[in-house]
Amino acid sequence: MTEFLNYKVDLTLKDGTKSTGLISQVDSQQIRLSNAIQSIQPKQTIPYLDIKSSEIADLKVIQLPPDFKQQQKRKQPDWDTSSDVQDIKSSNEFDFQANLAMFDKKSVFADFQKRDHTNIGDRLVGHNKIENVNKLKKEKYDNDEMVLDQNRTDNWDNIGTATTSKTGTPVVNQNGYKDSQHQHLKLINANNLGNVALASPVQMLEIERLATDSFGITQAMMAEVCATNLSQLIMESILGGASRLSNKKNHNLPPLVLLLIGSARGGSRAFATGRHLTNHGVRVLAFMINTVEVDADLQQQWKLFESSGGKVVISNIIELLDIINNQLDTPVEIIIDALQGYDDHLEDTFYQDEDQATLRKLMKWCNEPQQQNKIMSLDIPSGVDGGSGTLSDDSLKLNCRWCISMGIPLSGIILAYKNGNMSLRDGDIVHYLVDVGIPNKVYSSKGNLRKFDKFWYCSEASIKLEVSEK
């Protein structure tokens, strides 16, 4: 008991008196206090006062010895000193088993129950009692219970009606890349790493003209072949393939694809692709900035698209964003950019002030982070010149996630990378080359096209391309 020496204590005796002092000696029989003060004579200090243990009713420590903390720090054992364990085991000062026997667990829990006034039915254990479980459990469920609703609906069926108004309103600009220039870039086939020849816009016009005039492959036929192959690529590579689209038990609404229609050639192929996607259960919504100069092919594809279940919104971008954000329960998963062809520019297609304002608002919305990774540009991102890869207006460019070359890749793609108008960061833009049905004989019919004379597509209808710096 020597560890209690120099503790200042306040002793309450059984006769009601109190004594205060420093413990100078202690054993099992008595405690000696030094400089003691008794409550019956508070003004008198007794040098030594002996008090029998049997006379003590209560003991309260009122002050620790001055060197207690230093002693504790010096005596603090290391956590891994095994000799301390043996010291405790061999010590007779603390008998754990004897002290544990003094603890009356039964009486303590009886006291807990006596003080606890919580209704047994309000306890968690009360809900799990056999009688309650049997009371709530059903033997059989009705046919409309425990079943996910397979008839989720939104406002899709009411979109694109005759009440669609033609106005113009919100959305603006975007960010350019302007990375450091790279001089030795080329497109290669991702499968065999072979070089892929590039065509200028003039060469593409010549190739497609020869396909029509010499081989009878019209623009409508090329649009149909392109749509078949591109829609298949989209469904298998982006929309989840058969595991998602063929799952008849999927209670979710179908995927949503947005078409941005501008140029005649690209717009026709986008409409045709949207029609094929619609035929496979995908919901496709198209937005047209204006309908002033619509050529015959685009008009026909537009008609076929709507008759197959596609929806069209004209000019009113506020209506478009309201449909996407508020009226439909599915987010847009792909935005197909067909605003610009390889042989024209946005400023030429949308030259009216009202159309320009709508175009800027549309591009601003598309280039927001939520939409930017969903953009699939046909031929080349809108705003980038198909021949030089330059920008005529830095504020008018879409930052695409996928770039789809139709027939042959454009030379403007590599030049756009060199100019910093397309991002070279790994995985920023994924390139595909899609077969549009151009006969191989076209390339051998003229000398300036012989560099394209090869079988571009064998067993595949689309080829993944990569940008190489070697």
UniProtKB/TrEMBL annotation:
Residues 204-444 form the YjeF N-terminal domain. Coiled coil: none annotated. Residues 82-118 form the DFDF domain. InterPro entries: DFDF, FDF_dom, YjeF_N_dom, YjeF_N_dom_sf. It is found in: Cytoplasm, P-body. Pfam families: FDF (PF09532), YjeF_N (PF03853). GO terms for molecular function: mRNA binding. It comes from the Eukaryota. SMART domains: FDF. One of its GO terms (cellular component) is P-body. GO terms for biological process: deadenylation-independent decapping of nuclear-transcribed mRNA; P-body assembly. Keywords: Cytoplasm. Belongs to the EDC3 family. This is Enhancer of mRNA-decapping protein 3.
